[in-house]
């Protein structure tokens, strides 16, 4: 299978790619060259983790919290419309 992904030595020789950060350990996109590890996808891996989990990470997925609260649709609609206030 042909791939367009750059090799680790190409990433290193370009001088544009920064080494990975601790959070990247275990990701499948990490390539190693001369004891330095680089991300095949992003030049600045620290920027991908600045706001949370990297969206291209293969080793970590965001947790999705599912709430099981039952909502009565009639009451919810009444609440959303302001409801009828007693005087
Ligand atoms: S894809 Fe994201 S988690 Fe994986 S090595 Fe690159 S920056 Fe790190």
Structure description:
- It is a single chain.
- This protein is an alpha+beta fold.
- The chain has one domain (8-80).
- It is built from three helices and two strands.
- Strands 1-2 form a two-stranded antiparallel sheet.
- The longest helix has 8 residues, at 73-80.
- The protein is rod-shaped and about 75 Å long.
- The model has no long low-confidence stretch (mean pLDDT 85).
- It binds iron/sulfur cluster.
Query: Major sheet, described briefly?
Result: 2 strands, antiparallel
Structural class of the helices, strands and pairings?
alpha+beta
Tally of helical runs: 3
Q: Could you say which small molecules are bound to this protein?
A: iron/sulfur cluster
Query: What low-confidence regions span 5 or more consecutive residues with pLDDT below 50?
Result: none
Euclidean distance between termini CA atoms: 74 Å
Q: Strand order within the widest sheet?
A: 1-2
Coarse morphology: rod-shaped
Strand content: 5-15%
Give the rounded overall mean pLDDT.
Answer: 85
Question: Care to count the β-strands?
Answer: 2
Number of self-contained structural domains: 1
Task: Name the helix and strand elements from N-terminus to C-terminus, one letter apiece.
Answer: HEEHH
Q: Assign a percent range to the helix content.
A: 10-25%
CA gyration radius, whole angstroms: 23 Å
List the helices and strands and how they pair.
Elements: H1 8-14, E1 30-33, E2 36-39, H2 45-48, H3 73-80
Antiparallel strand pairs: 1-2
Bound molecules: iron/sulfur cluster.
